[in-house]
Amino acid sequence: MRAFIRNAAVVVAAASTALAAVSCGSGTGNTSTGKDPPVIGLLLPDATTARWETRDRPLLEKRIKELCDDCRIEHANARGDVAIQQEQMDSLITEHADAILLVPVDARALAASVRKAHAAGIPVISYDRLADGPVSGYVSFDGQEVGRLQGRALLRAMGDKAHGGRIVMMNGDPSDPNAVSFKRGALSVLQGKVEIAKAYDTLKWRTEAANMNMAGALSALGAGRIDGVYAANDGLAAGSITALKANKVRPLPPVTGQDAELAAVRRIVAGEQYETVYKPFGPEASAGGAMAVAAARGTGLDRVATGRVTTSEGTAVPAVRLTPVSVTAADVKRILVKDGAYTVRQICTPQLAAACARAGLT
After folding, report:
1. If we measure between CA atoms, which residue out of 143, 134, 157, 336 comes closest to residue 229?
2. Do strands 99-102 and 276-278 pair parallel, antiparallel, or not at all (unpaired)?
3. Residue among 40, 76, 62 nearest 295 (CA)
4. Contact 205, 51 (CB under 8 A)
5. How many whole angstroms separate alpha carbon 226 and alpha carbon 319?
6. E strand or H helix at 182
7. pLDDT tens, position by position, 100-144
8. What's the CA gap between 331 and 334, in Å, rounded?
9. What tens digit of pLDDT does each residue of 255-299 get?
10. How many CA atoms lie within 13 A of 326 on its CB side?
């Protein structure tokens, strides 16, 4: 935890320094130069995962406006449809946008659009998910560490069954490179210790697909023969838990998650979900917004980035990689409430009063 706080502080400090440089550098401040205001495209992948519209979008828009008050932000959500996101990219290219901040629905399928933007001289910043093609920069969390945190938490929760117990793996969308990283990280912890009785890849991260897959796993394995569930994010955890409850599985096996969605935090307090992985959206959005403004103004991303990442084209580009943290019921107040992610009032509905008291959320 100390390492997480230290890393987050370094990122925030680096981002703050970069923001100052972007704001104060010659010709890069908020003052209008008489030219058309810069246009920054903000393309989000879906509304299935709550974080995109409720957390990332407002934080990104706020940061961009802090750095560039005359910047015009063109926001669009692909609703999980690759063709729609390709059309959105084409529209921004036709409009001669100055930069595009992209969370790809499908990293590989968007490669041609990224190349088209690159050919038009429009830098693409890949946010949270690394798109294929000649992106100019990347901001995200360490995906394999997310999976390792989830795997370790699951083993801890399984106790004596952590050696030889049976689990179901509810992985994310294989077209999302982050999902591949999460899975790889989790398997590095779980393989050789537990039996992976069933494993599913969940197209478009759909909660209802996780629900159907878990129902199928229960039918095949038996309601009392699942000792743990690796769910790659909170939406998949929700679908899995709903299926477990519908099949009257008691007690519920430990279930992991990711994104620290409010509904998931409430499930954790209630004892239905064991863990989630918290990825502080503030530092990610701060770096992403700074990169987008720097790219739009052509001032160089190395003033924002703290590292490099190799793209599918084999080119090393500026990157910011952040550190995630695992959260269980014992950590909610110490991490999520203290960090300002949620207040106790937001988490503790009247139905959760007793559970919140047990978790020290008073």
Report:
1. 157
2. unpaired
3. 40
4. no
5. 40
6. helix 177-190
7. 999 999 999 999 999 999 999 999 999 999 999 999 999 999 999
8. 5
9. 999 999 999 999 999 999 999 999 999 999 999 999 999 999 999
10. 19
